[in-house]
């Protein structure tokens, strides 16, 4: 691998990290402002214009808070858990394509122009990679709950483990329809297969199952049983404070971003503007900056949906969650696979 | 292949023997199950290393079969563990001698 | 660069394996096993087995080990006694250990010699180890074993349900 390639990859990684961390900070603000709007309040609007500096103030507050480690806690695991949670959330973004790419010679640094993809790594098993990393993210939550040595944390961790295992099945099965139609696990290929028609139309059942399951996987309302405040205080992060708490918080929002990008690239056409005929003739090689903007706009819409649902729907009971996962979503996902493969084979 | 197949085989042997060590010396049923997983994993590593050396994907297919067997084994094994623990309040395999008949 | 990475991840997997069998805290054991499985998955990538590596993390580390950690937490096992039968066990194992490593090394040398004699190279096709390649082999040459694994899984599911039901009655 030539050094220029490694350098470009490093720049991309730094850029994605910076963008996502900024986005996470402003998502917390957006969440508070939108919830205030839904509940007919004002929300935080004092720090800076429209409260835009509020995330900065929050971050400063969290950094300078006292960092408490419970006496009977398992210290190593207690410190590891939030970091593990956040890392597994953020490295899933490595294979998400946010645009086609562009050719450049880096202002004459390289001898011949190279094509730079808007994607850190286009690996052969892209989609499986996202799911593999996603399946590891349960450890952060479970460890945080176990290492705190508190009953509420342990209950939250256990609930989270059960819920995430249960919802991984419909989540994984619902995308198989998309994979069958696109014929590839590369996310770049899947997006390009939607140039004619977004997959949300032929795969409406898969889309709905995926949407509901990803709400459950991100531990958001109406499925936030692992941190249900009225029942188990704050669930797995009851004992956490200061930046460790903030890392759990950031992990949750990063999970939201990953889930939204996946929904957009699998079902909503990725960086294609229109449901039909993609870019209707706009030369995206020339205007290479348009596809990322479209992709990010779509991600914002899905993120708004996440927040909207959270402040609208009440929480499910635990047995209801398990029933929904195993008796409704799982059979629906299987039916979706059978119908899709039948259509592909016989028509 | 920059790293030769013998490196992978030696690593596989090391992992396997550590797994055997765990199965024989540990008293806790869950740790014994985990050591079994370790041994299976070592075997898988050897399968995939040979598959690469031969340029034949049969070894990788074997690995998929081995993972399926491991998943089934763990599901049944852990169901037994939970069942035994609720009956006997212990997972010490020296105490659990009811399989002797 | 590949050999340095190989030694790093090989050392990580051995360290994880040692922690599994020697630590007295079951949760640490489970996590160490996850470390071992993850490092092995990275080694699979070096062996051009991308699909297998993804499956290893997805199924082994992501599902089977979560089941383990769930059981450990559900039974709330915190400290387990480290019981060894006798002092001579580690020594016997040490001897066995050395023998097995030597056997592994010699057999790999023999294997390489055999490759040279039969003239089979290590040339690989472009889709070696990818989803397409493994899928093609799995669904043509090994379709019967593949179908039989589904029988195995059904048997396992029925067994688990039967055990769990009996406990609650």
Short description:
Chain A is mainly α and 347 residues long. Chain A is built from 13 helices and two strands, in the order αααββαααααααααα. With 169 residues, chain C is mainly alpha-helical.
Description:
The N and C termini of chain A lie far apart (about 45 Å). Chain A has one domain (about 65-95, about 120-345). A two-stranded antiparallel ribbon of chain A has the order 1-2. Chain A has 13 helices and 2 strands; from the N terminus they run H-H-H-E-E-H-H-H-H-H-H-H-H-H-H. Helices cover about 60% and strands about 5% of the residues of chain A. With about 100 residues, chain B is an all-alpha fold. Chain B has 3 helices and no strands. Chain C folds into 3 domains: about 1-85, NADH-ubiquinone/plastoquinone oxidoreductase chain 6, subunit NuoJ (Four Helix Bundle (Hemerythrin (Met), subunit A), Up-down Bundle), CATH 1.20.120.1200; about 85-125; about 130-170. In chain C, about 35% of the residues are buried. The termini of chain C are far apart. Classes of the chains: A mainly alpha (about 350), B mainly alpha (about 100), C mainly alpha (about 170). Chains in contact: A-C, B-C. Chains B and C meet through helix 1, helix 2 and helix 3 of B and helix 1, helix 2, helix 3, helix 4 and helix 5 of C.
Spatial separation of the terminal alpha carbons of chain C: 59 Å
Number of alpha- plus pi-helical segments of chain C: 6
Oligomer: heterotrimer
What is the alpha-carbon Rg of chain B in Å? 17 Å
Can you give the helix content of chain C as a percent range?
over 70%
Going by CATH, the architecture of chain B would be: Orthogonal Bundle
């Amino acid at each position: 691998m030539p050094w220029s390639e490694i350098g470009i990859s490093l720049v991309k990684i730094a850029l994605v990290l910076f963008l996502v961390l900024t986005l996470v900070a402003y998502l917390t603000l957006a969440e508070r402002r939108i919830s205030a709007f839904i509940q007919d309040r004002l929300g935080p609007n004092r720090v800076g214009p429209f409260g835009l500096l509020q995330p900065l103030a929050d971050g400063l507050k969290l950094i300078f808070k006292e960092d408490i480690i419970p006496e009977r806690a398992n210290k190593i695991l207690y410190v590891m858990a939030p970091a593990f949670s956040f890392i597994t959330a953020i490295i899933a973004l490595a294979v998400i394509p946010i645009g086609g790419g562009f050719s450049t010679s880096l202002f004459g640094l390289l001898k011949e122009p190279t094509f730079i993809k808007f994607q850190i790594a286009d690996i052969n098993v892209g989609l499986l990679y996202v799911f593999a990393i996603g399946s590891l993210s349960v450890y952060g939550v479970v460890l945080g709950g176990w290492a705190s040595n508190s009953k509420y944390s342990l209950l939250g961790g256990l609930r989270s483990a059960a819920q995430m295992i249960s919802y991984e099945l419909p989540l994984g099965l619902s995308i198989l329809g998309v994979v069958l139609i696109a014929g590839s696990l590369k996310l770049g290929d899947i997006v390009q297969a939607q140039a004619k028609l977004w997959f949300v139309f032929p795969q409406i059942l898969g889309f709905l199952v995926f949407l509901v399951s990803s709400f459950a996987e991100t531990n958001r309302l109406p499925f936030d049983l692992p941190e249900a405040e009225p029942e188990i205080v704050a669930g797995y992060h009851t004992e956490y404070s200061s930046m460790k708490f903030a890392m759990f918080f950031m992990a949750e929002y990063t999970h939201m971003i990953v889930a939204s990008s996946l929904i957009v690239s699998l079902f909503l056409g990725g960086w294609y503007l229109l449901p039909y005929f993609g870019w209707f003739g706009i030369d995206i090689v020339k205007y290479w900056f348009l596809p990322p903007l479209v992709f990010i706009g779509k991600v914002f819409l899905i993120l708004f949906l996440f927040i909207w649902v959270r402040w609208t729907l009440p929480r499910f009971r635990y047995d209801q969650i398990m029933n929904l996962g195993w008796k409704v979503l799982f059979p629906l996902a299987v039916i979706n696979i059978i119908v899709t493969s039948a259509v592909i084979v016989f028509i | 292949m920059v790293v030769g197949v013998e490196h992978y085989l030696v690593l596989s042997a090391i992992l396997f023997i550590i797994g055997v060590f765990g199965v024989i010396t540990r008293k806790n049923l869950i740790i014994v199950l985990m050591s079994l997983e370790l041994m299976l994993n070592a075997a898988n590593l050897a399968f995939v290393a040979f598959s690469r050396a031969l340029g034949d994907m049969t070894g990788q297919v074997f690995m998929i079969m081995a993972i399926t067997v491991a998943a089934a084994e763990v599901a049944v094994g852990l169901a037994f563990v939970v069942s035994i623990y609720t009956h006997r309040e212990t997972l010490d395999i020296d105490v659990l001698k009811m399989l002797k008949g | 660069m590949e050999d340095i990475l190989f030694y790093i991840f090989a050392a990580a997997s051995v360290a994880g394996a040692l922690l599994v069998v020697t630590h007295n805290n079951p949760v640490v054991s489970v996590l160490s096993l996850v470390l071992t499985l993850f490092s092995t998955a990275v080694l699979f990538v070096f062996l051009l087995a991308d699909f297998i590596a993804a499956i290893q993390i997805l199924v082994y580390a992501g599902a089977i080990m979560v089941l383990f950690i769930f059981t450990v937490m559900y039974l709330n096992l915190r400290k387990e006694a480290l019981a060894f039968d006798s002092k001579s066990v580690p020594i016997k194992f040490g001897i066995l250990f050395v023998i097995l490593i030597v056997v592994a090394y010699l057999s790999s040398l023999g294997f390489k010699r055999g490759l040279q004699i039969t003239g089979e190279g290590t040339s690989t096709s472009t889709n070696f180890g990818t989803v397409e390649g493994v899928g093609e082999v799995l669904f043509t040459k090994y379709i019967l074993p593949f179908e039989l694994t589904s029988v195995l899984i059904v048997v396992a599911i029925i067994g688990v349900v039967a055990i769990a039901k009996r406990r609650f009655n």
